[in-house]
Structures are given as structure tokens and as C-alpha cells.
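User: Can you recover a sequence for this backbone? Please restate the input before giving your answer.

Assistant: Of course. Working from this structure:
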């Protein structure tokens, strides 16, 4: 089992590397306020777990009884102050019994306040930013001994992020004219229906990793502001999943007539969902996915023999690499044109230059390319933001960094909790909430 100093040093390293070091002080304060709410919910849940463990021990000594005595019956809660590393919690709800409350000490509050509050605060928060539930169990074991089981820790960490559902249902007062949509695939453990005996002889449910996708919608406004509006886990990127996500946005106040464009990759289920839920929106095919989609179509006819800059002889592999660079750079240049008319001119030049030596590349790039020109209906300043799904992909890269550390999520809810924490961190980092209020 890791020593306390080792666990604390590990958590601090992760914190500095992945979260706090890049934030200004004002933004850090916003994030700490959010973390304080999470620590409060986590402590309250852990207190309930401790109380239930205390009550259950009575049955161990009184196996013949089927109900608890009156003094062990629950009797609501009382409030008290607790000082944490994020600030003071003025109204922590502490559960109480009908009798014996003054005599019974709280292990969690006693150890929390006199021992290592930073370890628990950071461990709970970093669970949502990459630590596995086993890492968190070891950390909490060092601080609290054997008090919390793995099941209890699951409940504590989920309760710590209870604001997630409120965030996901918040009203949308300002409908963005542009939506960027995409999905990121994850592994989530699901029961197989079978059981097995562990090393201790206990019967356990057999779990197996299942591929699921987190669908996300980001809004982009005319002034360049962008923010994730919604996300949901689904079994696939089919029409029903996208339609349900768009329907939820409409229920929260999104005006379907105000959405003029939806940026996406080549998801086959999306067009039908747009027709059903956002009929006024036109689809913009991600130009990055479009260009990447031709990479398997090169035939490498008439490869150059010499480097155009140094005039040195090229090896076959270097010649193929040069061909890919030339073609892809010219393909991207099509969509970097300031107007659609100029983009179509560049497309014509591209076809003339490459259709003889790379006919399949030209055919694939030209197919349905009109959907890649939809972004030209907006101002030039927005083009680099909305001609691809890169804004959302950058967020997904950070999410994948955390999911790689976790592996398979224990359940769908824990996956969404992690996604929500990274959304909250991203909003705080870029001061999105405050900039909205100033407008």
C-alpha cells in the first residue's frame, strides 16, 4: 500500500500537470468554488456511509433482531461548518440518530479536519480528471483506514458531481446559429448476466467492456464564442441518438429556426436527425475529415525523382511522402479561400493538376464537396472556426487523455461525470460564463 507522502505527491503532480498550473488566479477561484460544492456533496455522502456502517454493526452483535432499537433510528440532519482547502463549507449536513449523537465521534470529520484534507479533496476531484476508482480507494484507505468500500467510493464520487444534472438541464436563452457535433468512443463495463467467485469466495457479477459513444454538441456564436451545450452517452451515432440529443436542446430553449448550420464529420445517422429536429439547418461537412478521407486512395503514379528544393534524389518512400504532402496541402488550400467562388476555382485547378496521376484522390475529394462549402454563408472571421470539427476535437483529445488513464468506466454515469468535469474546467479556463454575463 502506498505511503501517505507518496500518494500526496502523486496527486499533486497530476494536479499541477493537468489542471491548475495554466489557470490565472481569478479562473482558479471559479474552479475552486465548483470543487467546494463537490467536496461538500462528497463529505455528506461519506458521512451517511459511516453512519450506516455504524448502524449495521449492531446487527452483527444482535443477529436475532430484525429491526434497530429507537436510539439507532435516523433522525434527520444538523448543520456545521467545515474548513477545507477550497474554503469554508458553512452548512455541511451531518446525519444524526435519535440518541447517542454527542457520544459517538465522527471518524471522517475528525480525520478530515486534523489529518489530510488536501489528499481527500484532490483525490476526489482528480478521480474525475483521470484517477481510477482503485487509485482513489488506495488514497482514501491511507487517510480513513478500511472505512469506505469500493461501492461506497463509487457513490461518494458520483454524489460529489451532483451539479452535473443541473448543468445539463440549464436553459438556453441565446441560440447559436452554428452547432458543431461529434462523438467520442469509450469503454464502459456492463454486466454479462454471469457471476464468478473471487479469491475470497465471494460471488461477483461478471462485467465486460462495451463500446459506447459520448455525443456532444458545441454552439458557436457570430462573435466567435463557443461552448459545449449538451452531451449524452449512446450505443452509436445513429439517427435516433442524434435526434434525442437535439430534442433535449429544444426542450431547454434552443430555437430550431435560428440554427443555420451544423458542422459534423461523415456520421450517416445525422442528416435524417437534422431533417427531423433542425430542418432549417444546413450541414457543413468537416473539411479535415474530408481531406483525411482520401489518404487511402493514393496510387502514386509518376512520382517525382528529385526534391524540388534541394534537387537531391528521392527514395521511393520519400517520393510518396512528398506526393502526399503536396496533394493534401493543396486540398486544404481549397477551403482556406476567402470566398466560395475562389474555393471553386482552386478546386478546378486541383482537379487539373492531379486527376491524371491521382484520379481516385480527385474523385473522392470532389464527391459531395458542396457540403464542405456551407460555411461560406458566414463572415470570414468565423471560417477557421466552423469549417471543421476541430474545436470539438481539441476538447475530445483532453477527454481521451483522461479515459486512457482510466481504461473502462465502471458505469455510464461515471463516464458522464468525467466529461462534465472537463467541460466545467474548460469553461472556467476560458472564462466563458463571465463573458456571457458582461454582454
Amino acid at each position: 500500500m502506498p505511503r501517505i507522502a507518496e500518494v500526496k505527491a502523486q496527486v499533486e503532480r497530476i494536479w499541477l500537470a493537468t489542471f491548475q498550473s495554466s489557470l490565472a488566479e481569478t479562473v482558479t477561484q471559479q474552479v475552486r468554488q465548483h470543487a467546494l460544492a463537490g467536496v461538500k456533496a462528497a463529505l455528506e455522502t461519506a458521512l451517511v456511509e459511516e453512519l450506516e456502517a455504524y448502524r449495521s454493526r449492531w446487527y452483527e452483535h444482535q443477529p436475532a433482531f430484525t429491526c434497530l432499537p429507537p436510539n439507532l433510528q435516523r433522525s434527520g440532519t444538523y448543520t456545521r461548518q467545515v474548513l477545507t482547502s477550497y474554503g469554508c463549507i458553512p452548512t455541511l449536513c451531518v446525519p444524526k440518530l435519535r440518541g447517542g449523537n454527542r457520544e459517538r465521534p465522527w471518524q471522517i470529520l475528525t480525520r478530515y479536519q486534523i489529518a489530510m484534507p488536501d489528499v481527500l479533496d484532490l483525490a476526489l476531484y482528480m478521480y474525475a480528471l483521470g484517477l481510477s476508482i482503485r487509485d482513489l480507494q488506495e488514497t482514501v484507505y491511507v487517510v480513513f483506514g478500511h472505512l469506505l468500500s469500493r461501492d461506497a467510493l463509487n457513490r461518494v464520487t458520483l454524489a460529489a458531481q451532483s451539479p452535473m444534472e443541473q448543468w445539463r438541464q440549464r436553459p438556453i436563452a441565446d441560440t447559436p446559429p452554428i452547432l458543431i457535433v461529434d462523438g467520442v468512443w469509450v469503454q464502459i463495463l456492463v454486466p454479462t448476466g454471469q457471476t464468478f467467485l473471487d479469491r475470497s469466495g465471494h460471488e461477483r457479477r461478471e462485467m465486460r467492456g462495451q463500446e459506447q459513444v459520448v455525443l456532444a454538441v458545441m454552439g458557436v456564436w457570430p462573435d466567435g464564442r463557443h461552448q459545449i451545450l449538451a452531451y449524452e452517452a449512446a450505443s452509436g451515432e445513429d439517427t435516433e441518438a442524434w435526434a434525442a440529443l437535439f430534442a433535449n436542446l429544444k426542450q431547454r430553449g434552443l430555437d430550431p429556426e435560428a440554427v443555420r448550420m451544423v458542422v459534423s464529420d461523415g456520421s450517416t445517422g445525422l442528416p435524417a436527425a437534422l431533417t427531423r429536429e433542425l430542418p432549417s439547418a444546413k450541414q457543413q461537412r468537416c473539411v479535415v475529415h474530408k481531406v483525411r478521407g482520401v489518404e487511402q486512395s493514393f496510387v502514386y503514379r509518376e512520382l517525382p525523382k528529385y526534391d524540388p528544393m534541394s534537387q537531391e534524389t528521392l527514395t521511393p518512400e520519400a517520393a510518396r511522402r512528398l506526393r502526399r504532402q503536396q496533394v493534401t496541402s493543396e486540398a486544404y488550400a481549397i477551403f482556406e479561400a476567402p470566398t466560395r467562388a475562389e474555393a471553386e476555382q482552386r478546386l478546378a485547378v486541383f482537379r487539373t493538376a492531379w486527376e491524371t496521376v491521382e484520379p481516385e484522390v480527385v474523385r473522392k475529394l470532389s464527391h459531395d464537396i458542396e457540403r464542405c462549402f456551407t460555411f461560406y454563408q458566414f463572415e470570414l472571421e468565423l471560417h477557421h472556426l466552423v469549417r471543421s470539427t476541430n474545436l470539438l476535437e481539441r476538447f475530445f483529445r483532453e477527454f481521451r487523455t483522461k479515459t486512457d488513464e482510466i481504461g473502462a468506466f465502471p458505469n455510464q454515469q461515471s463516464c458522464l461525470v468525467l466529461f462534465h468535469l472537463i467541460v466545467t474546467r474548460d469553461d472556467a479556463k476560458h472564462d466563458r460564463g463571465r463573458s456571457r454575463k458582461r454582454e
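That completes the design. DSSP finds 17 helices and eight strands in the chain.
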